[in-house]
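BUG-464 | component: ligand-complex export | severity: low

The export step for 6-phosphogluconic acid jobs runs without errors, but we want the raw record kept on the ticket for reference. Input record follows.
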Amino acid sequence: MKYEIGVYGLGVMGASIAQNILNHGFSAAVYSKAEEERLHFPSGKYTEAHPGGCLVCESEEELVQSLQSPRKIFLMITAGAPVDSVVETLLPMLEAGDVIFDGGNSYYKDTDRRCSLCAGKGIHYVGTGVSGGQLGALYGPSIMPGGSYEGYLAGEKILTKIAAHVEEKPCCAYIGRGGSGHYVKMVHNGIEYAILQLIGEAYMILRHGLGMAHEEVRKIFQEWRQTKLDSYLIDISVRVMEKYEEDGVPLIDRILDVAEQKGTGKWTVLEAVERGVYAPGIYEAVMARNFSARVEERRAGAGLLTVTGDDMKLDDAQAELGDALLLAIALSYSQGMELIRKASEDNEWHIDQKVLADLWRDGCIIRSRLLKDIKAAAEEAKEGPLVLSGAYREFCKSEAALRKLVVQTESAGFACTGFAAALHYYDYYHMQDMPVRFVQALRDCFGAHTYMRTDRPGHFHTEW
Ligand code: 6PG
């Protein structure tokens, strides 16, 4: 018996992807270096349902030898060095035409490099962004494959079956060459960081800025689910607020305000800086996580630094904050899409943003009702940022709500950097006169760096 696909790595995500594949009736050979994971994999369930449907292999050789040709191996292992090491082990065992899918959060330049390395040996390498956490992996993730197109085609039937579906269309489509699939997944995570930060700030504004009871805040989030804010992250925010300790205290009250990260948000920020794309919401979200670790200094600061402003006051917190949040979230997608557009141009990936909006409509962490509008915006704004599209005019009507919110948080001494960054992004796009005019004069004054003029083309220097 030869199996249709191999899954290498049976941690939480790998085991879930393997079960998803088996649940869809495909046969699979699975393997993990960790004996414990091999023992725990519920292969019996699948062999009972369709005998021979699943084989748990004892070695890499067995995995490779048990696969139908061309072999397809889905790697679900930790990004970074482990991927290089597994690719190195597998390559000599594979034959031209075989395909490796890397389903982890690999750095896109590593994926580029691995694509070339494998292509040199006739092996197809597909950097496959997978989003949706454990349940997504098990019941239908959003899948963003990039790299070898031939390799993608070899696995298309399986990938599109196991992906989430919206109106019978799979949330899986070929993104482009090289590391483009992992690039898109990286930016997906950057947007995820920005939205998580905004939701955290919205919760803090309601609970501590406006002094609402836990239950009131939960109800507001609950009601936001009936609006355009309806999304996976708002859904699970309600779930988080429904969790209580045995003594009745909401669990959220006992969670330390120190946020960790694995690196995809930081990569997104570095990419934005490298490509000159303004993505302040993503930057602030990463920095808020970094700064949160400085617990001792924050404690010291609380005893030293005074706040002289006014307390927060909103007339209708649910509506006003809801409008501001919706606009800020829409602007987060705009920032991420802008980065993807620039990277796609630079690398000639030809990424279609409409396709991304479709891929993200279900299965992934940033799935939301909003993505219908994002798709409409992407359809229009082929050359420019989503924020300037007609589809964004409706969101932008909430500019006053966002501005009022930011003014209030600033005055009350709540650093809501996510909301402020969203407003800055908005304001940069309409300001006709940026302060850098003066910067140019100063640069020329101290260093003869030259400046451009409003009245004629060219670069000029003045003896100041
Ligand atoms: C997903 C998630 C997943 C994970 C990220 C972010 O799409 O399923 O984005 O990939 O949550 O790695 O993790 P950190 O917040 O720990 O950086």
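Assignee comment: Attached the raw record above. The pocket of 6-phosphogluconic acid is lined by residues 105, 131-133, 189, 192, 261-262, 264-265, 364-365 (CB under 6 Å).
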